[in-house]
Amino acid sequence: MQGWESARSQVEEALVLLDLAEEAGGDPDSVSEAGGIAAAMEKRLAEMEIQRLLGEEGDEAAAILEINAGAGGVDAQDWAAMLLRMYERWAQRRGFRIQTLDFLAAEDAGIKSATLSITGPYAYGYLKAEVGVHRLVRISPFDAAARRQTSFAAVHAYPDIEDDIEIEVLDKDLRIDVFRSGGPGGQSVNTTDSAVRITHIPSGLVVVCQNEKSQHKNKSTAMKVLKARLYDLELRKREEALAEKQATKKKIEWGSQIRSYVLQPYRLVKDHRTRHEDGNVDAVLDGDLDRFMEAYLVAQADGTLGGGSAAELPG
User: Fold this and answer.
1) Which residues contact residue 92 at a Cβ distance below 8 angstroms, ignoring those fewer than 6 apart?
2) How far apart are the C-alpha atoms of 154 and 158, rounded to whole Å?
3) What torsion do the CA atoms of 267, 270, 276, 281 make, to the nearest 10 degrees?
4) Nearest CA to 76 among 129, 127, 147, 134?
5) Residue 143 phi/psi, 5° resolution?
6) 253: how many CB neighbours lie within 10 A of its CB?
7) Concatenated DSSP letters of 138-169
8) Which of 6, 101, 199, 228 could cross-link with 158 by S-S, CB 3.0 to 4.6 Å?
9) Does the CA dihedral 83-78-145-134 come out positive or negative?
10) 198 forms bridges with which residues in the sheet?
11) pLDDT by residue (tens digit) across 100-147?
12) Facing residues of 259 across strands?
């Protein structure tokens, strides 16, 4: 409400300036100032409209983002690393705080998986638009014959719930294993049993954290991620129940690409759910994702969100 009052005040100020400019015979300074206010107001109204769309439960929360390499061997692992950088750059553009919770490097290139905590206003509300399989088409830098390669990586986001949201996790439902960290981090990390794996037996969810030197810190972080995933699981159950009544909503599953990034034979990023596309692939891979996220939010609100498909793109 306060935002709308501010916007109305700006409109009134611009109208006063235009009246003064008209009385002064079209004073260029007043006209320019009024135009500047109008442009700023237009931008603010667009931001407020997106915030209006970020009204679902958990949208305002920080996010836990997971990236996993899929089919495509070394190329897929490299693609997962490219996505990791893309989301880090997106978060940096917004001034969000990024913390690496888990990181599993691949042997030859790229990563097998990574888990990030991204903290900032509506981080989850935006990043939920990225959930699904991302597809890359390019000339493989790892193929001596320079053949075109299609690679896949999966992205998931969970709301990083606050401590005052109660998620009941019983000790009897957990299996906790400790082991030696296999990733980078120095002698202390790699030579002690500091890594923690928590398995939630009823749901089958498994969380691994090995980024900290302290087993206690890794366990605390793993529990935080587990609670976020259980919270997300409950949200998904509610969505699935609602989807039975709303045929326009489709479940995203592995193998159903939500977005394709084509570098060869042409350059294009296309979201298959919203049909939004951008030919500036480099900018997108450098974190320019807002238009894709906003298109998702608008389509979700309008009930026009489609399922993933990539049949029309080369592969």
Assistant:
1) 98, 287
2) 14
3) -40
4) 134
5) -110, 115
6) 10
7) EE-TT-TT--EEEEEEEEEEEEE--TTS----
8) 228
9) negative
10) 176, 207
11) 999 999 988 999 999 999 999 999 999 999 999 999 999 999 988 889
12) 134, 271
